[in-house]
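Illustration 12: Mannose-6-phosphate isomerase-like protein (Cupin superfamily).
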Amino acid sequence: MTPQEMDARIVRYGDLKPCKTAFIDAHTPGSDQKENFTIIGGGVSESPDQHVHIRDTPGFNIGAAGQPPKCRNSLHSHRTAEVFFVLKGRWRFFWGRWGNAGEVVLEEGDIINIPTGIFRGFENIGTDYGMIMAILGGDDAGGGVIWAPQVIEDASGHGLVLGENGKLYDTKKGESLPDGIKPMSVLTDDELKAYPEPTTQEVVPHYVARYWDMMALADRQPARVIGDGAMLHDKPGFEVELLTRGSIPAEKYTTDTHEILMPMRGHWRLDYDGGSAVLNPGDTCAVPPGVARSVQPSMTGEASLYRVRSTDDPAGPTVKA
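Figure caption equivalent — predicted structure in token form:
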């Protein structure tokens, strides 16, 4: 692989292009300052303004959300896995029909594997602009977002209408639904009964891993975070590991699956057959199967990196009984 080919597979944090109109709550007060980033794959954005950095998917999607303090993402659900790790800031994740069934606060480096089939939202409760990185199961990320009814109703009062085709229309800009396209239907009371309301105690032990716990486990080998036999046992169509200094040997290795490298702390040197590159916190690198590579911290100090690999498992965890 040439350096030019590898460079095309590295999305730098500083080059990320945000979309401020990605979802139906883009005009709703309290949610109108959030930014959505689609890094690998089409993601779940409802806006034609969304920039996609790398369209080819490795069996899952990579995205990110950036929000100033006190900005929240409205209650929604997905049909496949939605995993977040906190790159910057302090974040509160909450869930349930009204967002009051349970909650957890995540610090930098922490990761949450949110169960499918529940409404969830999140907000930046830190003092500065925050950033969370997302892994979404499936090549098509599960076919979009399912919004809690009140989110659709609130959005209509601020000019945004979601069509049944999954696209947004801004009535304040004079846009209207095309002929033959109806508004997205609101879930009925009977349909809402299918969405579980798990408590904090039911979710956190099974779906949240703390950064320093993972760092301790990654002292001599990668910490297995999500996947078969990992800290979080669900198999959502991909597996996640946390690497730190000494986790892997310096020799090159190959894989028969796609591998995504996402530094959390420190600078990492990626050596591959054909060249080398330095990966920094917030960067995303997509290494294809069969390419011999090694990755090691390039400087002293704290270093950690999330590594995501595609698997053949179904793309969505469910709430444990």
